[in-house]
Amino acid sequence: MADSILATLRRINWLVAILVGVLLLVCVVFVLLDIVLRQVGSSFGGTDEISGYVMAIATSWAMAFTLLELGHVRIDLMRSRFPSLPKALLDLFAMLIMTLVVTLIAWKSWPVVANSIANSSTANTPLETPLVLVQLPWFAGWLWFAITAWLTLVAAAMLVLQGRLSDCEQAIGAFAEVETLQ
Fold it and tell me: Where are the domains of the chain?
């Protein structure tokens, strides 16, 4: 079951990563077109604002993909010196802490969105962008990251309970640079 949870999360997050990549490419084309238009004395206007929104949304959605690809930064001073079981327990502890932090971020993000909805808030910029259009997908990305983190934590705990410590390390471990270069 742990393997199917992790495989499903990887498939979903792979699709999310592709969609985020497409979103970023569209943003790049938009900014490049604006730069070209500026050379002829015109402009779309607001490209800096829109690209900032795209970056916030892309970042929140990309976090879950990065988690499953073991791309988040971890400081690994002691972990590599331990045998497999203590190493797996440290990985589970690190995953639990990250999951709790991400859940707190998602939890605290919702009131921001709710206030924007309740107040029909707009950006204090010439575009006057309705903030809910930006904050809702941003919040959804954080929520998805929290869900992915919890499911990954559960799957990793299942692997440890089954004695599959190397599989746990593959799922949530931290790989030193020396290990990844070989």
Answer: 2-181
- What six digits make up the tokens of 52? 């900032």
Q: How far apart are CA 88 and CA 82, in angstroms?
A: 9
Helix (H) or strand (E) holding 142: helix 131-161
Q: Are 23 and 54 in contact (CB under 8 A)?
A: yes
Nearest alpha-carbon partner for 180 in 70, 90, 95, 102: 70
Location of structure tokens 């070989």? 182
**Extended strands (E) in 68-167:** none
Q: What is the mean pLDDT of residues 78-90?
A: 85
d(CA 13, CA 10): 5
Cα gap 12→109, rounded to integer Å: 23
| Calpha distance 181→160 (Å, rounded) | 26
pTM of the model: 0.88
Query: Tell me, what DSSP letter sits at residue 173?
Result: -
d(CA 92, CA 23): 33
pLDDT reported for residue 179: 47
Question: What residues are paired with 130 via a beta bridge?
Answer: 122
